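Follow-up to my post from last week.
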Amino acid sequence: DTGVSQDPRHKITKRGQNVTFRCDPISEHNRLYWYRQTLGQGPEFLTYFQNEAQLEKSRLLSDRFSAERPKGSFSTLEIQRTEQGDSAMYLCASGQVGGVNNEQFFGPGTRLTVL
Amino acid sequence: AQKVTQAQTEISVVEKEDVTLDCVYETRDTTYYLFWYKQPPSGELVFLIRRNSFDEQNEISGRYSWNFQKSTSSFNFTITASQVVDSAVYFCALSEFTGNQFYFGTGTSLTVIP
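User reply:
Got it. Predicted complex:
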């Protein structure tokens, strides 16, 4: 399978714990995006990387959220001191600069439940 | 500010009927991209189409067609002869030309009744 993969698919945690999600993009893609989707809403853009550079992070929801893409391949999204309001689906997408006009390919998402 | 509005929250149609999903957007940019995505019950977003702002030609792909009207800032999506497999949530999205940020609408949930 050469699509975008995310791990884990589901995460249940207690309030106050830290969680980390991983995204593996399509291998030749140099752009990687993170979104949050809550029930009944569209994906909400959080941040994106071009190669290892995080070019946009102003829309990360709070300083509890951080993302990395250390080698320009996979990326991690960390949420520190989770709150019940963080419960959502976290989506990753990848794309290619100069590719098919900003098309993004989405992964299956990680569903986070904060108890 | 960038914004995408999908006023139709839920639509139900009987199989073989045509259905149009509305999308209205706001942007200060003169060049931008518009997209439609499908999110079936399985949850994974599926790309349907991209349109850039300087190409107002309508597009048809099988039973799907899109009508882009810059004058009204609309990018509507029509499914002809709907099928049960079309049941999903459909999202309209807007991106800056650089692809730095994407803005999604709240989605329209389409149910096709057999």
